[in-house]
Amino acid sequence: PGSGAAPGGTGAARAGPCWAAVLGCLSLACSYVGSLYVWGSPLPRDHPSVIKRRFTSVLVVSGLSPALVWLWKELTGVKADTPLAALLGLRLEGLLPATLLPLLLTMILFLGPLIQLSMDCPWRWLDGIRVALDPRVWALCLGDVRWLRNQVVAPLTEELVFRACMLPMLVPCTGPGPAVLACPLFFGVGEW
């Protein structure tokens, strides 16, 4: 009489949590993408008032998404002893390597294009660094709702919904590798 909590259980024991996980992920994807279109404005998507309404929508959906993971956890009994924050990946243990290693990898991956840019660009390398560190440039960026949408709100809310909330539901069914590959598919289903 298993609840499907054991990843190595029989197919019948795992079928319930897997169906619940897939339905939960579909619900998250459709609610996230659907929240972008719930207002039905005739204005273009880059209009500041449309962007602000969409901010509200995705922030509400992102705030409610962990509740769906908690509900899934309670109904299926999978990882019942794990706190919700830890299940979503919000924990202090291992924070330093989890922060520094992706940053280092990103820096290494962008090293080639940055060197190419420094060789091709007519301005000096230090001029670009000065611009990037200028507080006036940052003030302009933080005052632009399109920049906030593209660089802050969209990445953070998408990571929360499509990675932090979906992965805990998918990993017990598929394992970590296939679960990581499946999350973008749910994003695509939501867009369709």
Brief synopsis:
With 192 residues, the chain is an all-alpha fold. The chain has 9 helices and no strands.
- Ends apart, CA distance between termini: 39 Å
**In this structure, how is the largest beta sheet organized?**
none
Number of helices: 9
The low-confidence runs, each spanning 5 or more residues with pLDDT under 50, are 1-13
Computed over alpha carbons, the radius of gyration is: 21 Å
Residue-averaged pLDDT:
86
Task: Tell me, briefly, the overall form.
Answer: globular
The count of strands amounts to 0
- The count of domains is 1
Helical fraction: over 70%
* Percentage of β-strand residues: under 5%
User: Structural class of the secondary elements?
Assistant: mainly alpha
Series of H and E elements: HHHHHHHHH
Summary tags:
192 residues; mainly alpha; 9 helices; disordered N terminus; EC 3.4.26.1; CAAX prenyl protease 2; Rce1/LyrA-like_dom; Rce1; metalloendopeptidase activity
Structure description:
By secondary structure, this protein is an all-alpha fold. It has one domain (11-91, 122-191). It has 9 helices and no strands. Helix 1 runs antiparallel to helix 7. 20% of the residues are buried.
